[in-house]
Amino acid sequence: MSETVLATRGLRKNFGSLVVAGDINIELPRGARHALIGPNGAGKTTLINMLTGMLQPDAGQIMLEGADVTGLKPAARVHRGLVRTFQINTLFPRLCAIEAVTLAICEREGHARNWWRRLPVYRDAVDEAYAILASLQLGADCTRVTRELAYGQQRLLEISLALAAKPRVLLLDEPAAGVPRSESSALFQAIAGLPADITVFFIEHDMDIVFKFASRIIVLVGGRVLVEGAPSEIAADQRVREVYLGHGKHG
Amino acid sequence: MAAVLPPQAAPHEFLRARTRWHPLEIVFWLSTLLPFVVVPEYLQLASQIAIAALFAISLDLILGYAGIVSIGHAAYFGLGAYTAGILSKHGIGEPVVLLVLGAIVAGVVGYASSFIIARFRHLALIMITLGICLMFYEAANLAGWLTGGADGLQGIKIGPLAGTFKFDLYGKTAYSYSLIVLFLCFLLARRLTHSPFGLSLRGIRENAVRMPAIGAPSDAHIRKVYTIAAAIAGIAGAVLAQTTSTVSLEVLGFQRSADVLVMLIMGGAGKLYGGILGSIVYMVARDQFSGINPQYWYFWIGLMMVLVVMYLPNGLLGGLEKLTARWRRSPT
């Protein structure tokens, strides 16, 4: 297996007496396409929140490319290449798509501190923003205001914003949440087409998609890793069937 | 025309069009010269409006663009006014120097407060901004030896503008001066709102949760814009002190903070011209209503506020934009 890019060691978090993360140890190699699955309330989003610094763990460490980032703020982790998307659209409703993505690029490049030069002067940033939007089929609608975009397009903009930060590790929290099945496959096709050196870790409820796009699956139950393995192993695992698949699909 | 452009050129053209000067903008600024000829007896009021507009622009930068609520913005207006007034008593008569000093004092205090401001949002900000303003009000009230306390600051001596133009009773110099300062500060604010920094401010307003997730230092952005806004408010205060030769506690009062908020929201927040339009309508209305009914004129202001917010959620300017858009669409 190739080098580990993102790892956790003994990650723990309690909300009162509820264990949302109990001693989580995961390792994501470079270029991984790993899925995180588990029943509702298993602590999947909590794990993403801790990885990105939006929630501080009670104990344990988060290692990004060998460095301990446990104490770093979310923005600092983004600068190191750890970027996420949100399960519920977390966009800029009254910005146009091109503005939103250009904003993210300007922040990455340090242009955002400039309050004197006009935005169109930053041609490279605008070009790059357009290229990202075009790669996710948003090119034609890039000058439309975010809140007027169709829901499926907003999900794609969610990912565009993350890509604008030039992630090395991309954490996708149910990228296809709320998207009809017919469209979600296309969305994952776009994710599968991301550069091979980007590590992708995604939460998804649709098992067909998980088995199709994930090279490895981590099953989280009650804040603990129940089992980790290749899709075929997970599909055959009796415990997974009992706690997860047996109860029917969620989302 | 758009059809011949390659698709990747469209966003460039789109963004450039936003920063371009609209013909109506030029018409507007030219029309600000009309009071000199049309209503020369109202130049003092025109000067007051220009000052209020500048104050509203400074609030728009933090409230309309960055979404930072403040109902204590008069703190910086008052600091600028007192700085200019007090220093003029101690031998600094040059108006432009006083203006810069007013901006610096207000900016420094704004920068210091911004460390608290950047950490809070919404309701908490209402309490904090109001609290800061109240403290300055009472401090100015208490320091009577410096500020004249409740009697107001006496003995302000402002030198002639550029060494030649005296501030007269008719307000010719006053309005010229206020208008020039307003226009220069407007140009600055316009540049700021069209810059990458301005875009980041709108990002904070639109979604404060997403900003750190794209790596944006929201707190630093807020500190910066708050400092700039405080300095501009200080300039507005200094201009008031200079053009009226008086500074009273009212410059730090809650009423002034509330008035500027009303002007901005009524005119339309987040578009610079909204604050200007709001100031014109509010100040002219106040002048007229108080003439008709000196005791109860706030009744009409109140009614106007309710009606505007009910029927024009984006303010008067938003309403005008909607109207012109409909008008433009109808012939086709």
What attributes does this structure have?
A: Rossmann fold; 2 domains; 5-stranded antiparallel sheet; 9 helices; 24% strand; globular; B: 332 residues; mainly alpha; 16 helices
Based on CA atoms alone, the radius of gyration of chain B comes out at 20 Å
The count of domains of chain A is 2
- Overall outline of chain B: globular
Major sheet size, sense and barrel closure of chain B: none
Greatest contact between two chains: A-B, 53 and 35 residues
> What is the class of the largest domain in chain A in the CATH system?
Alpha Beta
CATH architecture of the largest domain in chain A: 3-Layer(aba) Sandwich
Task: Report the total helices of chain B.
Answer: 16
Helicity of chain B, as a percent range:
over 70%
Give the overall shape of chain A. Answer: globular
> Any idea of the CATH topology of the largest domain in chain A?
Rossmann fold
Rounded to the nearest angstrom, the distance between the terminal CA atoms of chain A is: 32 Å
Oligomer: heterodimer
Mean pLDDT of chain A: 92
Q: Give the helix level of chain A as a range of percent.
A: 25-40%
Quantity of strands of chain A, as a count: 11
Tell me about the biggest sheet of chain A?
6 strands, mixed
